[in-house]
């Protein structure tokens, strides 16, 4: 059985590195240009199709002003597209695409990309297995989150049977108890 790192586990670190690059860039810029980046984190991290028209215009202006960040944002989208590509059905094909992405992302020369790329390269075999099974831990994470919410709401509840019924009501269909 192969160990699989799902796309969420891989992609969750890239926004942190994009933010790090956004913070790294102003150090080399004049103060006025650096101020233009202040407060723009949400624009850079949101996928373009989820932005409103005015936000999209702001992002377009920022992309023109800061081409290295625009390239990094493009790399993020390219990586996301690799994981969404339905024609990648073997680990070898997925690994080849990931290696190609890693090389092009590292060519940007940003420290933040290297911090993301090193673990990506080390875990490439486990990540490539995702393309074979398209396994995701999302449903389990959702169940665990819902169960934790129920546990917080049930604080002080001393009757396990009632707590069990709440869990079954939320996540399954409770079977009526037969009366004796």
Q: What is the strand and helix layout of this fold?
A:
Elements: H1 7-11, H2 14-24, H3 31-37, H4 41-45, H5 53-65, H6 67-84, H7 91-106, H8 111-122, H9 124-128, H10 130-133, H11 138-153, H12 160-171
Helix pairs in contact: 2-6, 2-8, 5-6, 6-7, 7-8, 11-12
Task: Write up this protein.
The chain has 2 domains: 127 residues; 34 residues. The protein is an all-alpha fold and 180 residues long. It is built from 12 helices and no strands. The model has no long low-confidence stretch (mean pLDDT 82). α2 packs antiparallel against α8 and α11 runs antiparallel to α12.
Gist?
The chain is mainly alpha-helical and 180 residues long.
- Using the alpha-carbon principal axes, give the shape: extended
User: DSSP helix count?
Assistant: 12
This entry's quaternary arrangement is single chain
Structurally, the number of domains stands at 2
Low-pLDDT segments, ≥5 res: none
Largest pleated sheet: none
Q: Tell me the structural class.
A: mainly alpha
Average of pLDDT: 82
Cα gyration radius (Å): 22 Å
> What is the helix fraction of residues, given as a range?
55-70%
Distance between the termini: 47 Å
How many beta strands in the DSSP annotation?
Answer: 0
Order of helical and strand elements: HHHHHHHHHHHH
In percent, how much strand structure appears in the residues?
under 5%
